[in-house]
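quick q for whoever's on today - can somebody do inverse folding on this one?? i tried earlier but teh output was garbage lol. tokens:
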């Protein structure tokens, strides 16, 4: 039995685990509810474990010496934190920061628990399949920052992470390094194209694949 209802629904890749590994996960994973704004980890701190996001959203980002934030990715239900995986597998400290964007529920595997389960072939496939998808998202970010127009960068930003995102147009503008008026105009353009819908303080992505195509 899983430690929190909904884990297998959110992470179907766990289904092939053998009974012993599933029991280990049930006993060892810790359920936590993180209030909005909770700083989950920062640069240079030891790894706390492998988070399985059940609801909500975690924002992972870097901070420059001048205090400017560079968003790397978001972790929603069914997704993984590539930096946590690197920390656990490589036994190194975090090299970025993570914050709960809204109230977020997670089931966290401790480092010792993660290491034990990594001996299970099914769990290895689960971890590295998530890792590969997240790495592809990061490669898109690097490509966008280096070569893309602003609308393409915004499209790729919205194509990754949760479908429903509670965020203001100003926050989107800050992430892109532009002004709110331009961010709002681009968001309206995406809405007219049927890629998303806009509500007050919220963006609902309707067609993430369409946004990815826009960003190419």
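ok took a stab at it. sequence:
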């Amino acid at each position: 039995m899983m430690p929190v209802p909904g884990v297998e629904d959110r992470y179907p890749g766990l289904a092939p685990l053998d009974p012993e590994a599933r029991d280990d996960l049930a006993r060892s994973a810790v359920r936590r509810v993180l209030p909005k704004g909770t700083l989950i980890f920062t640069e240079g701190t030891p790894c706390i474990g492998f988070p399985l996001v059940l609801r909500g959203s975690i924002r992972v980002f870097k901070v420059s010496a001048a205090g400017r934030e560079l968003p790397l990715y978001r972790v929603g239900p069914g997704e993984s934190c590539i930096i946590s995986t690197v920390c656990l597998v490589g036994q190194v400290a975090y090299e970025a920061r993570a914050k709960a964007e809204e109230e977020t529920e997670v089931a966290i595997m401790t480092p010792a628990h993660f290491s034990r389960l990594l001996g299970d072939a099914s769990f290895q496939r689960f971890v590295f399949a998530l890792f590969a998808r997240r790495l592809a998202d990061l490669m898109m970010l690097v490509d966008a920052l280096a070569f893309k127009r602003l609308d393409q960068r915004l499209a790729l930003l919205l194509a990754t992470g949760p479908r429903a995102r509670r965020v203001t147009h100003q926050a989107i503008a800050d992430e892109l390094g532009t002004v709110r008026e331009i961010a709002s105009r681009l968001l309206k353009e995406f809405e007219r194209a049927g890629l998303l819908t806009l509500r007050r303080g919220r963006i609902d992505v309707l067609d993430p694949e369409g946004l990815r195509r826009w960003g190419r």
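fwiw The two ends are 42 Å apart (CA to CA). also Residues 121-147 form the longest helix (27 residues). so keep that in mind when u check it
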